[in-house]
Amino acid sequence: MTKKSVKVNDKMQKDYVYELSEKKGSNFHADFNPELKPKEMLRLGVFGGVYMRDCKEEFPEEWFKNAKFQKEESYKHEGSLNFFGVNASQPLSVWREKGWIYKDDPRGWFQWYCRYYMGRRHKEDLKQISRWKKMKRHVGQVKKNCKRKDLTCRRRQRQTLLHWAYDSRKI
Predict the structure, then answer these.
(1) Strand 4-9 relative to strand 14-20: parallel, antiparallel, unpaired?
(2) What is the pTM (predicted TM-score) of this model?
(3) Is 47 helix (H, G, I), strand (E, B) or coil?
(4) What is the CA 71 to chain-centroid distance, rounded?
């Protein structure tokens, strides 16, 4: 694949440029097997409907067509827009305090995943994949404590898994 440059100008980044070096949706690291694509996550309802609304120039238009978003003028997470109808997010300030935000992806893991999915490879990839893998423990907790596919059981934990591209509807 010929490398392609992407220039980002949104509310959180100005004149940030990155390279796409892989074909969209392919050549993922062997340890990284997300169950949901970014488009599916946005369609199902994640992050209270306020995440990435201003990134429509960076990512495919199709990702945003059926995304569950809060009204443009609102920055309040709306749990009812999430698939499981609950708020399962912490404020970005908490993520910053914990050191989970890297300067190239100021919105966090999901922004990293969207860019990775599009074909960007970055020095933070292994760190982010490691964080993704650690979320698997929640899958085990849902399996242990819930009847299979009982979507009313542990809704907040299931929503958190959805935020990390695990399809918790199947557990």
Answers:
(1) antiparallel
(2) 0.94
(3) helix
(4) 20
Tokens coding 157: 């934990």
Using the 8-state DSSP alphabet, how is residue 102 labeled? B
DSSP string, 17-30: EEEE-S-TT----T
**Residue 6 DSSP class:** E
Domain boundaries, the chain: 4-170
- Number of C-alpha atoms within 13 angstroms, CB side, residue 59? 26
Torsion angle, CA of 69/95/8/27, rounded to 10 degrees? Answer: -90
DSSP letter at 35 equals S
Task: Give the Cα separation of 21 and 120 in Å (integer).
Answer: 6
Beta strands in 10-155 (DSSP E): 14-20
Separation CA 85–CA 156 (nearest Å): 9
Q: Report pLDDT for 92.
A: 83
Q: Measured between alpha carbons, how far is 92 from 111 in angstroms, rounded to an integer? A: 13
Q: pLDDT tens, position by position, for the chain (171 residues)?
A: 778 999 999 999 999 999 999 999 999 999 999 999 999 999 999 999 988 899 999 999 999 999 999 887 777 888 999 999 999 988 888 888 988 899 999 999 999 999 999 999 999 999 999 999 999 999 999 999 999 999 999 999 999 999 999 999 999
